[in-house]
Design a protein that fits this description.
Blueprint: E1 11-16, H1 18-21, H2 35-39, E2 42-44, E3 48-53, H3 60-70, E4 80-81, H4 83-90, E5 102-106, E6 111-115, E7 122-123, E8 126-127, H5 129-140, H6 145-160, H7 190-198, E9 209-210, H8 221-231, E10 240-245, H9 253-262, E11 272-278, E12 290-293, H10 298-312
Parallel strand pairs: 3-11, 3-12, 4-9, 6-10, 10-11
Antiparallel strand pairs: 1-2, 1-5, 7-8
C-alpha cells in the first residue's frame, strides 16, 4: 500500500550486492540462496509501518539482520561500533571491502533492533557492557517465553509510546538522615546508582555510539574510515527507525492482538519508521502499511488458511 506523501525516510532503500554475497568472507553467505534476494535486488522502505511478510526460510529475518549489521545494531540492539562488530564485518577482508552484502541508503541516525533470539551482552566469547544492563537480568529471570520476550521488547515499545526517560533524582550531598544511606563520590546513593544503571538503555539513542579508540594501528585505521562512510547520512534526516524480528514470537493470540492493534497499527509515520519481519495473521490488512511480500502470493495463502481456521472454530 502507498505510504503517506512527503515523509523522509531514515532507511530509504536496501540494495543487495550479489558480488559481495559471493565472497568467501561474506558475513551472510546464505543470503545468496534466498529466492527473494534473487528476485529483488532493491527494497524500498517508507515512513510508518513496513511489514516483511513471509514464511519460515523466506529471508525476512536475514534482511533485517543485514540492515542491523550495516548500522552496527548488534550490541544490545542499538547502533554501537565495537571491536567485535569490526572484526565480524572486516575479518579476512581488505580495508575497502566490508563483508556485508548490501548497501543501505539512510539518514545517519542510529537504529534500534529487536531480535528475540539475540544473546544480549555476550559477544565473541566475552561479556560487554550490555551484559550488565540486560544480559544478567534476562539470564536470571524465571518466567515464560512470552514474559521474557515482552520484557526485552519493553524498551523499544516505550520509545513507540513516547514515554519520557525516567530521570534519577538528584542526590543530596549528605547521607539521608532517616535511612542513613551513604552518598558516593558523584553525589548518588547506592540505590540511585542502580536506578541510573537500569535506565541507561531506556529511550531512543541520540547518536551512533563508538566504543573503539580512534588511536588505532594501521590495520584498523583504514577500516574505520570505511565505517565512517557507512554511517554517514545519504539523505535528509527523517523519522526514527526501529526493527522488529518476529516480535510476537512466544505470545498468545490475545497478546499478539494487543501488540498489533495497540502499538504497531498506531505507528505515526511522521515520527517513526518501523520495519517488522513476521508471519503473524494479526499483521494482515493494516491500513497504510507497506507490505513487502517475501514469497509471491504468500499473503493470499495466509488469508485462505486463516479463513479455513475460522471455519473449523
Amino acid at each position: 500500500m502507498a505510504s503517506p506523501s512527503g515523509g523522509n525516510k531514515l532507511i530509504e532503500s536496501f540494495e543487495y550486492l550479489k558480488s559481495a554475497a559471493n565472497s568467501e568472507k561474506c558475513t551472510f553467505p546464505w543470503a545468496a540462496e534466498i529466492d527473494f534476494l534473487k528476485r529483488n535486488k532493491k527494497v524500498e522502505f517508507k515512513p510508518g509501518l513496513n511489514i516483511l511478510f513471509g514464511g519460515n526460510g523466506s529471508g525476512k529475518s536475514t534482511l533485517l539482520q543485514m540492515i542491523g549489521m550495516s548500522m552496527a545494531a548488534v550490541q544490545g540492539g542499538r547502533s554501537c561500533v565495537t571491536s567485535s562488530w569490526l572484526s565480524e564485518v572486516f575479518v579476512g577482508l581488505g580495508a575497502q571491502s566490508p563483508g556485508i552484502p548490501c548497501k543501505l541508503i539512510h539518514d545517519g541516525q542510529p537504529i534500534m533492533y529487536f531480535d528475540a533470539r539475540a544473546k544480549e551482552g555476550f559477544i565473541g566469547g566475552g561479556f560487554d557492557d550490555d551484559f550488565f544492563d540486560m544480559g544478567l537480568e534476562n539470564s536470571l529471570r524465571r518466567g515464560s517465553t512470552g514474559q521474557l520476550g515482552l520484557t526485552r521488547l519493553d524498551r523499544m515499545l516505550s520509545v513507540l509510546r513516547e514515554e519520557q526517560e525516567p530521570q534519577p533524582q538528584k542526590a543530596k550531598q549528605t547521607a539521608n538522615k532517616k535511612s542513613g544511606t551513604p552518598v558516593y563520590a558523584k553525589g548518588l546513593s547506592r540505590d540511585q546508582k542502580k536506578t541510573t544503571r537500569k535506565n541507561k538503555n531506556i529511550g531512543f539513542p541520540e547518536s551512533i555510539e563508538f566504543k573503539v579508540s580512534r588511536n588505532v594501528n594501521s590495520y584498523w585505521e583504514p577500516r574505520l574510515k570505511v565505517v565512517d562512510e557507512m554511517m554517514t547520512a545519504k539523505i535528509e534526516k527523517g523519522p526514527r527507525t526501529l526493527l522488529f524480528d518476529e516480535p510476537e514470537s512466544g505470545f498468545s493470540f490475545d497478546w499478539q492482538d494487543r501488540l498489533w492493534r495497540g502499538v504497531f497499527e498506531r505507528v505515526d509515520p511522521s515520527k517513526f519508521q518501523v520495519i517488522i519481519a513476521t508471519h503473524s495473521p494479526f499483521a494482515l490488512s493494516i491500513p497504510g502499511a507497506n507490505y513487502i511480500e517475501m514469497e509471491p502470493g504468500y499473503i493470499g495463502q495466509s488469508t485462505t488458511a486463516l479463513k479455513e481456521l475460522i471455519k473449523r472454530i
